[in-house]
Design brief:
Length: 326
């Protein structure tokens, strides 16, 4: 026992840092700690720290080059008291309506194309293709599409509608926002449709067979099987669509030249405030308000969906358990 006790401390004392570092257990913990610390550090540095600084800047009267003084809540008061800023919330309602219509159409086409439909792969690809096009490029496409006497007017004249009876799609304030909403709907509907189709195709086919035996029609199958089964994807798509409508930027910025003729959204006004008027403090306050609105809308949507599908989700779970028991 004596010689063994003499050798062990010597070996430990002669172990170098390299020998210790290349041990499997050390390497494993090094990888775990690195992959945990580095992403968290980058998230804090590039996301949360700038966000906290933005909140701090929102309480100051400042530009990019100098701080003119502490403003307190004046920037936030200006957002809701100045008509040119507060009125942009009304423009967001157009895009919210368009987002709901977009979800409805995407769910409709996804339901049809998820079953045995001739040419379904072609239709899915054709509907998804606009999502692959750059938003700026789509803006220039529709800028000429809606221009007086160009593509849309030419098609409508071919159908027998005289040019004099057609509105100015981008200048008429009663219709120009709906024209821009149609652009967003055309771009993003295919993306939602593909997500819905993937979720619908993952539903157990035997549930449809059991429902048909019990006398359920297609609407009942959609209401009590498809909707509860894709509840998570549906909720996610609605949240993303509604929050995206609050921050709409590309269509009005490109098509109507930075929101001309009453099409400036809240996001465009925030851009103009920061980069044209150089009121950075006010722009930061607008960004904070937008973030709070998105959080509130998201919570309301989740609660509403949870309440709306509470019975259908329970029935679907019971049906799956019954099927498993058999």
């Amino acid at each position: 026992m004596g010689p063994v006790n003499n050798i062990t401390p010597t070996a430990t004392a002669n172990t170098t840092f390299r020998d210790w570092f290349i041990r499997p257990n050390v390497q494993k913990w090094f990888v775990i700690v690195s992959f945990a610390i580095i992403p968290v550090f980058m998230l804090l540095l590039f996301t949360y720290y700038p966000f906290l600084k933005m909140i701090e800047f929102s309480f100051y009267n400042m530009s990019y080059t100098k701080v003119r003084g502490f403003y307190g809540l004046k920037n936030y008061i200006d957002i809701f008291s100045k008509p040119e800023l507060f009125s942009t919330f009304r423009i967001s309602l157009y895009y919210m309506v368009g987002a709901l219509l977009q979800i409805g159409l995407a769910l409709y086409f996804a339901t049809i194309l998820s079953f045995k439909t001739k040419g379904s792969a072609f239709y899915k690809g054709a509907m998804f293709f606009p999502f692959l096009i750059n938003g700026i490029a789509i803006g220039f496409i529709f800028k000429f599409f809606y221009t007086r006497g160009y593509v849309l007017d030419t098609v409508l004249q071919f159908l027998g509608i005289p040019l004099e009876s057609l509105p100015y799609w981008l200048r008429d304030t009663t219709i120009n926002n709906w024209s821009l909403v149609a652009t967003s709907l055309w771009k993003y509907m295919g993306q939602n449709m593909v997500l819905f189709a993937g979720a619908i195709m993952s539903v157990d086919p035997t549930l449809y067979e059991a429902a048909a035996i019990d006398g359920a029609n297609k609407w009942h199958q959609f209401r009590f099987i498809i909707l509860p089964s894709i509840f998570t994807v549906l909720t996610l798509n609605v949240i993303l669509s509604i929050t995206g409508s609050l921050s709409a930027f590309e269509p009005p910025y490109v098509i109507t030249s930075m929101g001309g003729n009453g099409t400036a959204t809240y996001f465009i006004k925030m851009h103009q405030t920061a980069h044209v008027q150089y009121k950075v403090g006010l722009a930061c306050a607008m960004a904070v308000v937008l973030a709070l609105i998105i959080i509130i809308v998201t919570v309301i949507q989740k609660l509403a969906f949870k309440y709306a599908f509470r019975n259908a989700t329970t029935e679907t779970k019971v049906a799956k358990k019954s099927k498993g028991a058999k």
